[in-house]
Write a structure and sequence with these properties.
Blueprint (H helix, E strand, L loop, with lengths): L11 H16 L8 H12 L4 E5 L15 H13 L4 H6 L7 E7 L4 E7 L14 H4 L15 H16 L5 E8 L8 H5 L9 E7 L7 E7 L3 E10 L3 E2 L10 H12 L10 E10 L5 E2 L2 E10 L2 H21 L3 E10 L6 H13 L5 E7 L6 H10 L3 E7 L18 H19 L5
Parallel strand pairs: 3-4, 3-5, 5-14, 6-13
Antiparallel strand pairs: 1-2, 2-4, 6-14, 7-11, 7-12, 8-10, 9-11
Length: about 450
């Protein structure tokens, strides 16, 4: 392995162990609530850090607040696959039913309680096998066809472990909690971790993400303008009939679904800020000559604020129901995933910017940038802010040849030591200078 440009005081052995962890996680991606091998692998790493306590299953999250959980059969399929990969039976038992993820707590004397949130799930898409794609060329491409880490969550977990190691090896005084959160890609896991009880004593929260169109050597101290989001699924049920012989006898579920999609895009936008709507998946029917008795549409609405998202969702629900009434079809509407908006606190972002400006491998420290998308770390951020704490969402730049969620996405591994160094020193600075006030 060539000598990296970014070591930031990290010895070669530590860097190589983190790269090896990232590549192992990249080889074994698991989608939302199916992160059984992933959680087991993390537990192995966390147990090797002195003074770290690990919460799993219902001790780590609120099962009742999970969203977008697959059915039992699919969960068991992924759990069996994790077992075949060598996942530990004690972890598989603790995470049964999709209770994946972990909370790691390092307690070192009196001081503030600081939290770090990283996400752990992969996307349901096939990874490129092009020989120019580094994971394919170097032998750590996804071994699970139809799933890949296309958004950097393998790097996020690695950063979480690396930062926890670095703080454990420092003179840190206080408590550090690292939330390894499942199901971010479906905005289904943030609320479950926010309601776990582990945030009740947290004074400061850092969330982080690699890339976001920022190259290696850039660090964004405070991401802002998260759009609140709500994912929905509407299922229509009508009455089948022969389309040639007795078309009048049917109640066409596809007509209801098509009407709904057309009218979703007609929802009036709001003067108070950005609003979005999208119908991303739709289907139904059984044959060209049969009036469809069943159909579905899955989509999302977003808003610059939580209130604007709720405005869009109310209009979307009315539109979906009205389409069913128009074509005499029953409709069931489910909220599949949801997350509020949030904003990074100025004072905590200032600390990250100050630290990033001091590091030689951070070429461009950036105070603020807008995400333009959604993230369910906002549940955790809101929870900490509501009890008087501060939160910021940090962007760790990384060169990536493909855009996020594409089959050629990859992470520049030189960004891992940078992220560990900046976040380690930001946590230490906060611990030394409390109380911080916004």
């Amino acid at each position: 392995m060539p000598f990296p440009r970014a070591l930031q005081g990290m010895d070669r052995e530590t860097r190589e162990s983190l790269v090896a962890l990232r590549r192992d996680l990249h080889r074994h991606p698991e989608p939302s609530w199916c992160e059984f091998y992933t959680t087991s692998r993390l537990v192995d790493e966390l147990e090797a850090i002195e003074d770290v306590e690990i919460a799993l299953g219902e001790e780590a999250l609120s099962a009742a607040d999970r969203m977008a959980v697959p059915d039992d059969e699919e969960l068991e399929t992924w759990r069996d696959a994790a077992r075949d990969l060598g996942a530990r039976e004690d972890v598989l038992d603790a995470t049964a039913g999709g209770l994946t993820g972990a909370v790691a707590t390092l307690s070192r004397g009196s001081g503030p309680t600081i939290a770090l949130r990283v996400d752990i799930d992969a996307l349901r898409r096939r990874e490129s096998d092009d020989p120019d794609h580094v994971p394919a060329a170097e032998g750590f491409r996804s071994e699970t066809e139809g799933a890949m880490h296309a958004c950097g969550h393998d790097a996020h977990m690695t950063l979480g472990v690396g930062i926890l190691r670095a703080i454990a090896d420092s003179d840190f005084q206080g408590t550090l909690k690292v939330f390894f959160q499942p199901a971010e890609e479906l905005v289904g896991g943030g609320k479950a971790m926010a309601e776990s009880g582990h945030l009740a004593d947290v004074d400061y929260l850092f969330a982080l993400h690699v890339g976001l169109d920022h190259p290696t050597g850039e660090v964004v101290a405070g991401i802002e303008d998260f759009l609140a989001v709500s994912h929905f699924r509407a299922e229509y049920e009508g009455e089948p009939a022969h389309a040639g012989g007795h078309p009048e006898a049917g109640r066409n579920a596809i007509q209801a679904m098509a009407t709904a999609i057309q009218n979703l895009y007609a929802i009036p936008r709001h003067n108070d800020g950005k609003t979005r709507v999208n119908a991303g998946m739709a289907g139904g029917g059984s044959a060209t000559n049969i009036i469809a008795e069943e159909s579905f549409v899955e989509g999302e609405v977003r808003g610059q604020t939580t209130e604007l998202m709720e405005y869009m969702r109310e209009h979307a629900d009315r539109t979906l129901r009205s389409a069913g009434q128009m074509h005499e079809c029953d409709v069931e509407i489910e909220t599949v995933g949801q997350a509020p908006s949030a904003r990074s606190d100025d004072r905590l972002a200032e600390v990250v910017h100050e630290i990033a400006s001091e590091h030689e491998d951070v070429e461009t420290p950036i105070e603020r940038d807008a995400l333009g998308g959604s993230e369910d770390a906002t549940y955790l951020m809101e929870a900490v802010q509501a009890q008087g704490g501060l939160a910021t969402y940090v962007g760790i730049g990384t060169d990536h040849p493909g855009g996020h969620h594409t089959s050629t996405f990859d992470v520049d591994e030189d960004s891992i030591p940078i992220g560990v160094a900046v976040m380690r020193d930001a946590i230490l600075r906060v611990a030394e200078t409390v109380p911080l006030e916004n």
